Amino acid sequence: MLKIKRYLKKYRYNFNGLILCGLVFFAIGATAFCMVANSREAEKNKKLAQSLISGEPEAAEALSTAVKNAVDQQRAKASSVQPGVPVGTTDPPADEKVVYLTFDDGPSENTKKILDILAEYDAKATFFITGANEQCRPYIKEAYDAGHTIGLHTYTHNYDEVYESDDAYFADLEKVGEVAKEQIGFVPCFIRFPGGSSNMVSAQYNKGIMTRLVKSVQEKGYQYYDWNLDSGDAAGCGKEEIEQNATTDKIDHVMILFHDTQTKDPTVEALPYILKYYTDLGYEFRGIDRDSYVSHHSVQN
User: Fold this and answer.
1) Rounded distance between C-alpha atoms, residue 111 and residue 24, angstroms
2) What is the DSSP string of 139-194?
3) Nearby residues of 54 by Cβ (< 8 Å), 6 or more positions away
4) How far is CA 251 from the centre of its chain?
5) In Å, how far are 34, 37, 73 from 41, measured between CA atoms?
6) Nearest CA to 99 among 297, 299, 296, 276?
7) Residue 102 near residue 125, CB atoms below 8 Å
8) Which of 46, 31, 26, 124 shows the shortest CA–CA distance to 79?
9) What is the pLDDT of residue 21?
10) The model's pTM
11) Whole-angstrom Cα distance, residue 221 to residue 207?
């Protein structure tokens, strides 16, 4: 009997050792996997890893930290400027129904309201930021930490400055990129041209500049995003008009243009209706990532 007890005791210690070794290898494997998987898959594997070792609190905490760090690193890398690495697709999967809510011109006093509404619906969005409202810049990090995508719009939004020359455009882009880097630690590769790639305002200051820029931004590692649905909030539409303009069941990959400024209260008021509309139709709300659908307009200048 004594021998049996000793055997069981020895076996228990060996078994615990095997568990700990297994957890170490699992953590290493999970971390490596996260480094090569996209951010959505990495997040799923993080949750799976946590559930698999729920009986080992200390190991679970260590694994959670390791995987979270890997997920964070992968997310930052996947969203950052990498010249020569393609971004996005114009041929998205046909079996998906996705809405990309995009907000230009923030951050603003309305950003927090927008984030709170998005959280209620567990919806992710993309914020194309400017250099305005320095006091609101902490909302950039708050949005990113909540799982939303940060993109670059413009620092000044002054067309005569931004589109004066190719160099002037990139100087402005680099400046707003630094604003993003201060808040989230890197320069995003996702951008939206002031006025969109099809704008004609730029022709007043530099003929042919958009034709050159749509090519050169991609050569530098950025990707530009237009939209296939305009909420009309830039034109001063009220709540009901925005709700009507921003909803459709005719497109499977919907990229909606909104604006995030202090004067866009109707946008904030219309957002719950829009979120419920697409939720009821079975759409998923995603922030733009490196694999997302890319909406491009026809360049007019």
Assistant:
1) 41
2) HHHHHHHTT-EEEEEESS--HHHHTS-HHHHHHHHHHHHHHHHHHHSS-BSEE--T
3) 60
4) 21
5) 8, 6, 14
6) 276
7) yes
8) 124
9) 44
10) 0.82
11) 24
Write out the DSSP string of the chain.
-HHHHHHHHHHHHHHHHHHHHHHHHHHHHHHHHHHHS-HHHHHHHHHHHHHHTTT-HHHHHHHHHHHHHHHHHHHHHHHB--TTS---BSS--TT--EEEEEEEEE--TTHHHHHHHHHHTT--EEEEEES--GGGTHHHHHHHHTT-EEEEEESS--HHHHTS-HHHHHHHHHHHHHHHHHHHSS-BSEE--TT-TT-SGGGGT-TTHHHHHHHHHHHTT-EE---SEE--GGGT--HHHHHHHT--SS-SEEEEEEE-STT-HHHHHHHHHHHHHHHHTT-EE----TTSB---PPP--
Write down the pLDDT at residue 40: 62
Count other C-beta atoms under 10 Å from residue 132's C-beta: 20
Which residues partner with 223 through β-bridges? Answer: 190
Of 80, 81, 125, nearest in space to 107 by CA: 125
- Residue ranges of the chain with pLDDT lower than 50? 1-37
The residue type found at 181 is K
